[in-house]
Amino acid sequence: MTSTASVERRTPLDAVHDALGATMTDFAGWRMPLRYGSETAEHRAVREAAGLFDLTHMGEITVTGPEAARALDHALVGYVSKIGVDRARYTMICDENGGILDDLIVYRTGETDFMVVANASNAAVVARELLARAAGFDTVVTDRSEEYALLAVQGPNAVKILAPLTDLDLDVVKYYAADRAVVAGVDVLLARTGYTGEDGFELFCAPGDAVRLWEALREAGDGHGLIPAGLSCRDTLRLEAGMPLYGHELTTALTPYEANLGRVVRLDKPEGFVGSEALAAREKEGPRATLVGLRSPGRRVPRAGYAVLDPETREPIGEITSGAPSPTLGAPIAMAYVPLDRAEPGTRLAVDVRGTAEPVDVVALPFYKRA
């Protein structure tokens, strides 16, 4: 019998995480740091100062060539050809029925060059779909996930930490922009993107440079409150920021319209795209349910999979997709899909928490937004 350890993929920073005493976990086949000490302390560091993340598990697929933009317009729901060079855009790849295969960030690194960043659990699926959908276009699709390590510095002190390490003027790097840069002597693609609700940067580098870059960032962050941060706090940070997680808020059973992300669907593309007919029909008929935020006045936490109940009849009307105690708000929070007539902020619902109907209130998303 093959052990789990023998099939796990390890990032170039694996030994660094062990040396820091991280609690490690399997995530999408990768051995990743869950936390280094207190996940609450890591969460608060990102909100108040900065956190340093290893995100090498994410997938990177390049699409290049004269018709790369047209190929991606066909493959994805967004208008990729309208992305400016050195800019990025959040988008999705859907199936023929409009179901979400993954949510993505697309970086335009040149006039005919793009990099698609996929979630770890879906990287192979996205690469395979992009390759199939690019057939007939003058473009080349390559899964380059093995060629990149990905580090992130997230938090209000991110600029202060990175600025002394690079000649790039970070003040001119806009949100959802990316540029080639040298950071601590390491060649990187530096992007002002993230998954925490805070300002910050993601740095794509060669795997062989990951340890050097990590140590340089840690040293530069010593006076600015930076600490290593794991996947556990990344999850509570993105939940507070109302950001969906694939496999929870996003699945093939849902379209972007249920997830309140219809804005990323560009039905005005003249040549259409995979899933455009189904999504046009869903836009016209309206979503069958919608994603809402829930906040509990009590202390018991609504967790993923718990039933959302009618507070009077106790009949199930929905299901929690993500839930956790919020370190920032000091209260349990969750996201869930509920019927449209129960989605108005201020609506009182209930959640079945281990057999007890706990009251929750519908609130507007995101729960937290930085000043």
Name of the CATH homologous superfamily of the largest domain: Probable tRNA modification gtpase trme, domain 1
Structural class: alpha+beta
CATH top level assignment of the largest domain? Alpha Beta
Order of helices and strands: HEHEEHEEHEEEHEEHEEEHEHHEEEEEE
Oligomer: single chain
Number of domains: 3
The average pLDDT value, as a whole number, equals 96
* CATH architecture level-2 label of the largest domain: 2-Layer Sandwich
Report how far apart the termini are: 52 Å
Sheet with most strands: strand arrangement: 11-12-13-10-4-14
The number of E-state strands comes to 20
Beta-strand proportion: 25-35%
Question: Which terms would index this structure?
Answer:
Gyrase A, domain 2; Alpha-Beta Plaits; Elongation Factor Tu (Ef-tu), domain 3; 3 domains; six-stranded antiparallel barrel; 20 strands; globular
Write the layout of secondary structure elements.
Blueprint: H1 4-7, E1 9-10, H2 14-19, E2 23-27, E3 30-35, H3 39-48, E4 50-54, E5 59-64, H4 68-75, E6 87-94, E7 100-110, E8 113-118, H5 123-133, E9 140-143, E10 149-154, H6 158-162, E11 178-183, E12 186-191, E13 200-205, H7 210-221, E14 226-228, H8 231-240, H9 276-285, E15 290-295, E16 307-309, E17 316-326, E18 331-338, E19 348-353, E20 356-363
Parallel strand pairs: 1-3, 4-14
Antiparallel strand pairs: 2-3, 4-10, 5-8, 5-9, 6-7, 7-8, 10-13, 11-12, 12-13, 15-18, 15-20, 16-17, 16-19, 17-18, 19-20
